[in-house]
Structures are given as structure tokens and as C-alpha cells.
Write a structure and sequence with these properties.
611 residues, alpha/beta, ABC transporter transmembrane region fold, Rossmann fold, 3 domains, four-stranded antiparallel beta sheet, 20 helices, elongated, binds adenosine-5'-triphosphate, binds magnesium ion
Length: 611
């Protein structure tokens, strides 16, 4: 709701990061990792440095062994105990190296668990702070999917890469220092040969990520088809309409489209990586060749020759690994940027705004209200005006698509008007604090949700604060006309509904509607009750019962009822007839019948059907 919020409905198809953004993202990744567990982060840091020191120590000990052996051969006598001790030292170093590496992996797996919890929770928290309009936009789903994709693994990956970079740097400094004594040129040669690998990594990372972003709608459609084919509530249509095979064919087509591009990328990777490996091998063996010749000419000792080979290899793999880590860091940052874009800036509007209006006796007032859905060619509502004082009841009538449900979403502040305004107690809805505003309403939606929870919880969702309050469930179930259904179920209000979980049972369409009606009576503090088609799926007896109780139940509250069955609205204080988004008539039932307009003819048509 706030203006500072980034536009989540903007297309998500660009990607390119500068060094400053990468640094910024890396810092965020480290902060995330740290905030998930400082002790584990510290432990991993320490183990990484040790991991860098061990190979250098091993190379040095190898050289000492070889030189001791060579000296022994030259002098004709060796000290077996001294030699064995040095070999034992090297063995111990190798053992310690393994231990360190496993300890690091262990700590990382623990940290990963903490991190996924932190990140998944932040994504969910962000989702619930968004506007309804955000959820009705394809680009938003692209962004949400991109944010979720690998979101939990990338921050730790960045922290790991930083750790690896530190370890590689330690190895490089150690190796460069040892090599400086007898082969100062080797280090720069190996660096230059490995640079190519870095360029390749960055290029591939960018192409990979661009590919994912470009194809995100395709991937979402694939996931959607998988979901459709795997849902119990879709299964009957899928089977009877024979939709299974065509949908699988569609899935395969989409999959092939993505695979073709992924294959092209894989071929490119193979070609580039082969060139890099070739260059690195040439550099390594040139340096090694030099060492062999120098040892043959006795410029360096045999021990130095052996150590140089080890150091060249370690140097080369450390440089290659450091540079490819930098490339991978780029890739991680690209993925992390999807997450941070999604999470960035909280919706501050939830904390400010008024808690009450200046005139509690004014109720709901709608002034020249217009609304057009984004991208729609014509408005769903146009110049709608009416006044509903507190405690009065409004009936809404109109053909399908005339704008009734849209009007409800505007009256409850779920959408903001594109023209005109809605006032509650004399204050524009946009000036209310959103949570204070929402507590004033209890709404039964036309397309209410069938949660895979227990029956009681399905009623309880009507008021989150009492989600698990059995006394409230029971009272609301009675008021919503759900008592018969509850009595017939084996575990009453504790019966699990739906088939996704153990022992679930399903309800009929009309019974579900009674659940939704009961839900509307959970929020006892709400003074405005809105029912959108509350009885459309009910049988005549259930409908008559609900209607006969409605006037009692709504006593003292402001009420808005939408119904195609005009008998339901008969007792409303005002009836509003919507046609193509505009009010075509308004008045009491008697006045509208007397005027002989659209309402009168609709009423006459329905009445005739029963005669
Ligand atoms: N979320 C949406 N995004 C875009 N357009 C929408 C959306 N919801 C509804 N519309 C369009 O707005 C118009 C009014 O829809 P609305 O749901 O308000 O009608 P209604 O009067 O409640 O109809 P019904 O009697 O079928 O429930 C329709 O033309 C519909 O296509
Ligand atoms: Mg509707």
C-alpha cells in the first residue's frame, strides 16, 4: 500500500549486476548467514582458514622428507627414526585435513537448515504484507517464483564461496611465498592461464540466469500442469473430460522448449571449459618442465623440484578455484538479487493510519466510485454512489459480471478506487489503518476457500485470533446453520476435511457453503457483515432457515447481501441494482416493484418460475 514499495508487478526479465551490487548482495548474504547462527558461521570461518593452511604444510613436509632422503643417500647413512617421524607428521596432517573438511561440511549442513527457515519465513511474511492486486498479476508470480527458487541455498552458497576464497587465498599466499625463493615467474604464469576460466564462469552464469528469467512463465506453467494433474479436486474433470493426455503433451512441449535452450548452454559450457583446461595444463607443464631442467642442472634440489610440482598443482587449483568461486559468486548474487528484490522494503502502511472515523453515525458512504482492473478495456464499476447508515441492510442485485463482488472488494479496502471514494464513519478508507479497517468487517466470499483443516478450524479461520477456540467454533457453527452437518460427522467439529491428510472426509457444495456462512460469525467484533451469494448452493430448506435467521443475526450490524435469489433481499432497507458496473436502480423492495423497472421484471420472472 505504501508508495515506497518496489513494483512487484514489473516484468522480471532483466539481469546484469555491477561490482557494487555484487558487494552489496554478498554483504547481505553474510548478514543473513550470521543472523541465522553466529556460532556456526564463526566455526565455519575458522575451519576454512585451517583448511587453507594444511595443504601448504603438507607440501613443505614432503620437501623436507625428500631432501632428508637425498642427504642420506649422499652421506651413506640415514636416521630411520627421524625419517619415520616426519612421514608420521605428514600422515597426521593429511588426517587433520580430512577431519577439518568433514567438520566444515557438518557445520554447513546445520547452518543450511537454519537459513532455509529464516528465508522461507521472510518470503511468507513478505507475501502476507502484499496487496490483493499484487496477487492478480502474472509478473508478480514470476517474481515470487524467482525469489523462492534456490532462495534458501544461495546465501549459504555465497558464504561458502567466501570461505573457499579465504582458504584459496591462504594457499596462494603460502605457495607464492615458497615459490618466490626459486621459481618467481611460475606464479604469474599460472594466474594468467587461469584468468580465462573466470571470464568463462561469469559469461556462463549470466546466460544461465537470463535463461531462467526468460523461461520463468514457462516453468510456472509446467509446475501448474503438474499441480492440476495431481489434485484430488481436479481429478474428476480431468478423467471425465479426458484431459490427462493433452495436458501431459502440453507439459512435454513446454519442457522441450526449456531443454533445447539448456542444451545449447551445456554445449557452450563444454567448449569453453575445454579451452580453459587446455590452457591451464600447458601452463602447469611449462613450469614443471622448467623445474625438471633446473633440478637436472642442480640449480635447485630434488626436494625443491618435488615440492614445486606439488605447489604448482596446488597453486593452479587454488587460482582456478578462486576465480571460479568469483564467477559462481556472480551467479549466486544474481539469484540472491531475485530474493532481495522480492523482500525489499516492508509495507509500512500497515503501521499508520486512523483507528476510527470522525462520525461513527455516518456508516458507509460511497461517492462516485469507479474501478478498472489493470489492463481491462472497460471499468468494472463506474460512478457508483450510495449511503448505508450503521445498522441498515443493503441488498445488491445484478447480472453476472455486473460488478457486485468488485464493489465488495472496494468497500473492504482490498482494492483502491481508480475514481471517487469510499468513506467509513466519515473517513476515506485509504486514511484508515488497514488492520483497524479490516477488523470492522466480516465477509463471506462467493469463492470462499475450502481449507484442508478440521471442520472447526475451517470455521475458526473467520477470526485468526480464535482459530483454535472451540467454544467460538460451536457458537458460529450454530449461527451459520451448520449444526446438522456437525452432528452427522464422526468426530464433529474435529473431523478433518478434504483428502490431503489422514481420515479426511469431504462435504457437499451446500454443506461447504454453510461452513463459509459460519465463518462469517466468528468475528463477533465486526459491525459490518457482508455475504456474497451466501445461499447459492444450499437446498430450499437450508436457504429458508438461513434467511429466517439472518434478520436476527444481523440485528444491530450493518449488512450487505448479494444474491440472485431476490426473495433473500426482500427485507433489505435499500436494494441496489447494478448493470454493467453502474447503478441502474435503487430503493426499497416495494418502491422498486412499484416503479416497474429491471428489479420488478427480474422479481416477476423468478416468481413466475414458482407458479
Ligand atoms: N480479479 C479480476 N481481475 C480482472 N477482472 C476482473 C476480476 N474480477 C472480476 N473482473 C471483471 O470485472 C467485472 C465484474 O466482475 P464481478 O466479479 O464484480 O461480477 P459479479 O457482479 O460479482 O458477478 P457474479 O454474479 O458472476 O458473481 C467482470 O467483467 C469481470 O470479468
Ligand atoms: Mg460475484
Amino acid at each position: 500500500m505504501s508508495a515506497s514499495r518496489p513494483d512487484l508487478t514489473r516484468s522480471a526479465k532483466t539481469n546484469r549486476l555491477g561490482p557494487r551490487q555484487i558487494l552489496h548482495l554478498t554483504r547481505q548474504a553474510v548478514q543473513l548467514t550470521w543472523s541465522s547462527s553466529p556460532p556456526l558461521t564463526l566455526a565455519i570461518g575458522g575451519l576454512t582458514v585451517l583448511q587453507g593452511l594444511t595443504p601448504i604444510a603438507i607440501a613443505w613436509v614432503s620437501a623436507v622428507i625428500l631432501d632428508a632422503v637425498a642427504a642420506g643417500v649422499r652421506s651413506g647413512g640415514t636416521d630411520p627414526f627421524a625419517l619415520t617421524s616426519i612421514v608420521a607428521l605428514e600422515a597426521a596432517l593429511v588426517g587433520i585435513g580430512f577431519g577439518i573438511s568433514h567438520a566444515r561440511t557438518f557445520c554447513e549442513s546445520l547452518l543450511q537448515l537454519r537459513l532455509s527457515r529464516t528465508i522461507e519465513t521472510r518470503i511468507l511474511e513478505r507475501s502476507i504484507s502484499l496487496d490483493l492486486a499484487d496477487f492478480e498479476n502474472a509478473a508478480f508470480y514470476d517474481r515470487l517464483t524467482l525469489a523462492r527458487q534456490e532462495a534458501a541455498s544461495r546465501p549459504l552458497a555465497i558464504a561458502q564461496r567466501l570461505g573457499d576464497l579465504c582458504r584459496d587465498t591462504v594457499i596462494l599466499i603460502g605457495a607464492a611465498a615458497l615459490l618466490a625463493g626459486f621459481a618467481p615467474f611460475a606464479f604469474p604464469v599460472l594466474v594468467v592461464a587461469a584468468l580465462n576460466g573466470f571470464v568463462v564462469e561469469v559469461d556462463l552464469a549470466r546466460r544461465d540466469h537470463a535463461h531462467v528469467r526468460r523461461r520463468i512463465s514457462n516453468l510456472r506453467m509446467q509446475a501448474y500442469i503438474q499441480a492440476v494433474l495431481g489434485r484430488e479436486d481436479h481429478a474428476k474433470e480431468i478423467k471425465l473430460f479426458g484431459l490427462g493426455r493433452p495436458l501431459i503433451d502440453r507439459f512435454v512441449r513446454l519442457h522441450d522448449l526449456v531443454s533445447r535452450e539448456a542444451r545449447r548452454l551445456a554445449v557452450r559450457r563444454l567448449a569453453l571449459v575445454s579451452i580453459t583446461a587446455l590452457l591451464a595444463t600447458i601452463a602447469l607443464y611449462s613450469a614443471y618442465g622448467w623445474s625438471v631442467i633446473a633440478a637436472a642442472a642442480s640449480t635447485i634440489s630434488l626436494g625443491d623440484m618435488a615440492m614445486s610440482m606439488l605447489l604448482y598443482r596446488q597453486c593452479q587449483s587454488a587460482i582456478a578455484s578462486a576465480l571460479s568461486r568469483l564467477g559462481a559468486l556472480y551467479s549466486d548474487s544474481l539469484y540472491l538479487s531475485n530474493l532481495t528484490e522480492f523482500l525489499s522494503s516492508r509495507d509500512i502502511a500497515h503501521e499508520d493510519g486512523a483507528l476510527t472515523g470522525p462520525d461513527a453515525q455516518d456508516g458507509l458512504r460511497v461517492e462516485h466510485l469507479s474501478f478498472r482492473y489493470p489492463g481491462a478495456s472497460r471499468p468494472a464499476l463506474e460512478d457508483v454512489s450510495f449511503h448505508l447508515p450503521p445498522g441498515r441492510h443493503l441488498g445488491l442485485v445484478g447480472r453476472n459480471g455486473s460488478g457486485k463482488t468488485t464493489l465488495i472488494k472496494l468497500l473492504t479496502g482490498l482494492y483502491r478506487p481508480t475514481g471517487g471514494r469510499v468513506l467509513l464513519d466519515g473517513r476515506d478508507l485509504s486514511d484508515w489503518r488497514p488492520d483497524a479497517l479490516r477488523r470492522r468487517y466480516s465477509v463471506m466470499f462467493q469463492d470462499f476457500i475450502r481449507y484442508q483443516f478440521t471442520l472447526g478450524e475451517n470455521v475458526g479461520v473467520g477470526e485468526a485470533a480464535y482459530l483454535e477456540d472451540e467454544a467460538r467454533w460451536t457458537a458460529a457453527a450454530r449461527e451459520g446453520g451448520l449444526h446438522d452437518t456437525v452432528a452427522r460427522l464422526p468426530r464433529g467439529l474435529h473431523t478433518q476435511l478434504g483428502h490431503w491428510f489422514d481420515d479426511g472426509v469431504d462435504l457437499s457444495g451446500g454443506q461447504w457453503q454453510a461452513v463459509a456462512a459460519a465463518r462469517a460469525w466468528m468475528r463477533t467484533c465486526a459491525d459490518i457483515l457482508i455475504l456474497d451469494e451466501p445461499t447459492s448452493a444450499m437446498d430450499a430448506v437450508a436457504e429458508a432457515e438461513l434467511i429466517s435467521r439472518l434478520s436476527d443475526l444481523m440485528k444491530g450490524r450493518t449488512g450487505i447481501i448479494i444474491s440472485h435469489r431476490l426473495a433473500t433481499l426482500r427485507r433489505s432497507d435499500i436494494i441496489l441494482v447494478l448493470r454493467n458496473g453502474s447503478v441502474s436502480e435503487q430503493g426499497t423492495h416495494d418502491a422498486l416493484i412499484a416503479s416497474g423497472g429491471e428489479y420488478a421484471s427480474l422479481f416477476e420472472a423468478q416468481a413466475a418460475g414458482y407458479r
